[in-house]
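Form 12-C: Joint structure prediction
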Amino acid sequence: AQTVTQSQPEMSVQEAETVTLSCTYDTSESNYYLFWYKQPPSRQMILVIRQEAYKQQNATENRFSVNFQKAAKSFSLKISDSQLGDTAMYFCAFSAGGGAQKLVFGQGTRLTINP
Amino acid sequence: GAVVSQHPSRVICKSGTSVKIECRSLDFQATTMFWYRQFPKQSLMLMATSNEGSKATYEQGVEKDKFLINHASLTLSTLTVTSAHPEDSSFYICSANHRGLTEAFFGQGTRLTVV
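Section 2 - Result
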């Protein structure tokens, strides 16, 4: 069974700073995907970024980037130039490869961006 | 992007009654949909995998007779909480994957309160 661990229950930074959220996972799968989802107060789940395990290059989406360390089974999210709208719960998630697969979520990190 | 609509967004029901939650993929066909449950300040836990035209696959510990899932078409899955009790009060979220895509699209969620 796969497990996803987020060791930071809460984080808080000032606006415009850079923040890194940690995530580790455990799996015996060779083909899998990793995700970071954002859940704002509305509770709508929003995909922030996705990483395919077979790709060595770290994924980036504008101010969001990941540090994917496959051997260490680590998948951290870096948010640059943080904005007030980044305040939300952030969930790291894993899915096995091959079509529609269930997501296994970490415990979540509550991120607060202060003005 | 693909849109998943979940209805209702909030529902209050009396203990002992049943309540149905709908999850629709508006602009794509979803052969597989997933139902998650989220307790306050906790992560999302998979309840079941809904497969179009076949029986749902339930996660360990989830009562299939209590949480009835029907996936009668490629765009609609329903979750019926039967004989609801206060401990069933929670936030229920569905997701769907477009064929061939690994990205899951989430509904807005349903806050169920059983009184």
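Section 3 - Comments
Chain A is about 0% helix and 50% strand. Chain A touches chain B through 21 residues (CB under 8 Å).
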